UniProtKB/TrEMBL annotation:
GO cellular component, one term: cytosol
Pfam families with a match to the protein in the record: HAD_2
Listed GO MF terms: metal ion binding; phosphoglycolate phosphatase activity
SUPFAM superfamilies, A to Z: HAD-like
Keywords: Carbohydrate metabolism, Hydrolase, Magnesium, Metal-binding
Protein name: Phosphoglycolate phosphatase
Domain of life: Bacteria
Gene3D superfamilies given in the database record: HAD superfamily/HAD-like, Putative phosphatase, domain 2
PANTHER family: PHOSPHOGLYCOLATE PHOSPHATASE
Keyword Chloroplast: no
Enzyme Commission number, as recorded: 3.1.3.18
Enzyme class: hydrolase
Length: 222
């Protein structure tokens, strides 16, 4: 008997390593506004925080009011990212095998992300294992985004599973908060980006944590 009836996943930093395309899009935008690029290591500290926070790293604080960060700059970023969303993005090691194993063991899987749904669908279209997901739910599919529980509750209702038999895997504190509020089990994806932005994952009060995808697979199936 399976421990879980369903495993739900965050997208960026959990299923897919999307940081390279986000970083390239940010630095392209800065270049378009005659600003110098930002080093990858610094941008990685804000890659989960959104376009605005990434762009601010490239502008001196006292000069940020001079730039239309929430308007023209954000639009430039979004347009470039949409066109180049899959240039360098890859699945984390072991993900394809894990999703296949869930399918083969009749464990449902789905994606619940704070990314816009059309972007999530475009991202996932590159990967054959995307067809194994019951659902890909974006932030514009519900009234609230994570850490609110609504996206997880909607996903579980849509695929017909109960919270007590569902595991949600994510790399950010907001993922764990959402899972806890929705009543399902949570697992921190320690291979992701969230640890660059949030406090020590040991303080997040998750049910589980996994150092890599292979450890997650062992957790699910043992």
């Amino acid at each position: 008997m399976n421990r879980f009836d369903a495993v739900l996943f965050d997208l960026d930093g959990t299923l897919l390593d999307t940081a390279p395309d986000l970083i390239a899009s940010c630095n392209h935008t800065l270049e378009m506004f005659n600003l110098p690029p930002v080093e990858k290591e610094l941008l990685m500290t804000k890659v989960t925080a959104g376009m605005r926070e990434m762009l601010k790293l490239g502008i001196e604080p006292q000069k940020q009011a001079l730039y239309d960060i929430d308007g023209k700059m954000r639009t430039t970023f979004a347009n470039y990212y949409t066109e180049h969303i899959n240039d360098y993005t890859r699945a984390f090691d072991g993900i394809e095998d894990l999703i296949g194993s869930l399918r083969d063991n009749s464990i449902k899987s789905a994606v619940v992300t704070n990314k816009y749904e059309h972007m999530a669908l475009r991202l996932m279209s590159k990967f054959d294992f995307a067809t194994d997901f019951e659902l890909i739910l974006g932030c514009d599919s519900t009234s609230h985004s994570k850490p609110h529980p609504e996206p997880l509750l909607k996903a579980m209702e849509s695929i017909g599973v109960s919270p007590d038999k569902t595991l949600y895997v994510g790399d950010h504190l907001n993922d764990i908060k959402a899972a806890r509020a929705a009543g399902c089990k949570s697992c921190v994806a320690l291979w992701g980006y969230g640890i660059n932005e949030c406090a020590d994952p040991a303080t997040w009060n998750s049910d589980y944590s996994a150092c890599d995808v292979y450890a997650l697979k062992e957790l699910i199936f043992t």
